[in-house]
Amino acid sequence: MADFFRPEVRAFFWRWREVLLAGVVIVLGLWWALGGVGITVWLGYIFIAIGIGWAVAGFQRARFAQGDDGPGVVQVRERRLAYFGPLDGGVIDVADLTMLELDPGSHPDPSWVLTGLGGQRIAIPVNAKGSEGLFDVFAALPGIRTQTVLDVLSRTPDARVIVWSKTKPLLH
């Protein structure tokens, strides 16, 4: 059964799986809202609202995903981000992040460059295995705009771009 679909079609469905499942939830909600009786109508409206929220989040995740055929592996566990690459890697706590950049000139693929409190840097290719988990890490950074991240990623600038930096607290 796995050979029924071409690999490109399977990759497409896998990338857009959340949006497709959200569409199913919306259709189920519409069916209940328009044809139900009593509490089923209200459950239908709730399903529609949940489906719309899920579709928006899934659309953002699908735009962020760049595949997983790049070098290295990314792991996110308990707010600690680890990258294991063929030549380099590192571990950094999400709370210690001070800057997030996109470096389109890194070889062989564009990379996210994460800078920590101590100045340590980790360069993670945008298409490393497990890099889709970075979306949730980036979305949790204080003051970041996910639309900015998606715009920078989609247009791939010519030079390194600072996507987010931690604001320094004022002492007075």
Care to give the gist of this entry?
It contains five helices and seven strands; from the N terminus they run H-H-H-E-E-E-E-E-E-H-H-E. With 172 residues, the protein is of the alpha+beta class. The mean pLDDT is 88.
Termini separation (Å)? 65 Å
**Helical coverage, percent range:** 40-55%
Strand order in space, largest sheet: 6-5-4-7
| Record field, number of beta strands | 7
Shape field: globular
Q: Determine the strand fraction and express it as a percent band.
A: 15-25%
Specify Rg, calculated over alpha carbons: 20 Å
Average pLDDT taken over every residue: 88
Low-confidence stretches: none
Helical stretch count? 5
> Which structural category do the helix and sheet elements fall into?
alpha+beta
